Amino acid sequence: MEKKLQSFYTIRFNDSDPFGHLNNARYIDYFLNAREDHLKEYYQIDLRKFAAQGIGWVVSLHEIQYIRPANYNERVCIQSELLELADSHLLVEMLMLDEAAENLKAILWTKFTCISIKTGKRENHSAEFMDFARAMLTAGRDATGGLRGRVEVLMKKP
Fold first, then answer.
1. Order of strands, edge to edge, in the sheet holding 5-10?
2. Residue 120: what pLDDT?
3. Taking a C-beta distance cutoff of 8 angstroms, is the pair 40, 5 a contact?
4. Residue 25 in contact with residue 16, Cβ under 8 Å?
5. Which pLDDT belongs to residue 139?
6. What is the pLDDT of residue 158?
7. Share of the chain above pLDDT 70, in %
8. CA 86, CA 156: separation in Å to the nearest integer?
9. What is the Cα–Cα distance from 104 to 100, expressed in whole angstroms?
10. Is residue 142 predicted with pLDDT exceeding 80?
11. Is the pLDDT score of 34 beyond 80?
């Protein structure tokens, strides 16, 4: 099963600031849209089906670091992977890179907490979901160093 998922997007004019850079707040939209696309394309996961079963995930934490600007009309590569799986949350890493996937532009760690749509309260993942998600989990990534530690690792890569 593929674990590092990726797709390509073009930075739109209406998402740019007066300098022609992707607006800081819009990075999160690009990342979250890419993650949803990745789940559909690679795993055939439609989040509406989970919602129909009364299960959803809310963002409980975003941690982002901007490295280089993404410019208007630039084609970027967005990668995502599951770093951490717990009883009631997921930690997903998303990278925005240049089109060649060589130069890091931004990194986002998002913690998604599982909730019951009916009650709006935290809920543990089902055993079936945990089994499926374990297959998506990226092995060998240590999130204990935090986002800053991960950026240092990524910036040292040749």
1. 5-10, 75-85, 89-98, 104-116, 55-66
2. 95
3. no
4. no
5. 82
6. 62
7. 99
8. 29
9. 10
10. no
11. yes
End-to-end distance of the chain based on CA atoms, in angstroms?
A: 26
pTM for the model: 0.94
**For 119-146, what is the mean pLDDT?**
91
User: Left (φ > 0), alpha (ψ -120 to 50) or beta: where does 39 sit?
Assistant: alpha
Q: For position 44, which CATH number holds?
A: 3.10.129.10
Residue 17 tokens read as: 């600031």
Residue 102 sits in which domain range?
5-156
Render the burial of 118-149: b for 16+ CB within 10 Å, e for the rest.
eeeeebebeeeeeeeeeebbeeebeeeeeeee
Mean pLDDT value across residues 66-81? 98
| Contact indicator for 105, 131 with CB cutoff of 8 Å | no
φ, ψ of residue 14 in degrees (nearest 5): -70, -10
Give the CA count within 13 Å in the CB-facing half-sphere of 61: 11
- Distance from C-alpha of 135 to C-alpha of 42, rounded to nearest angstrom: 12
- How many structural domains compose the chain? 1
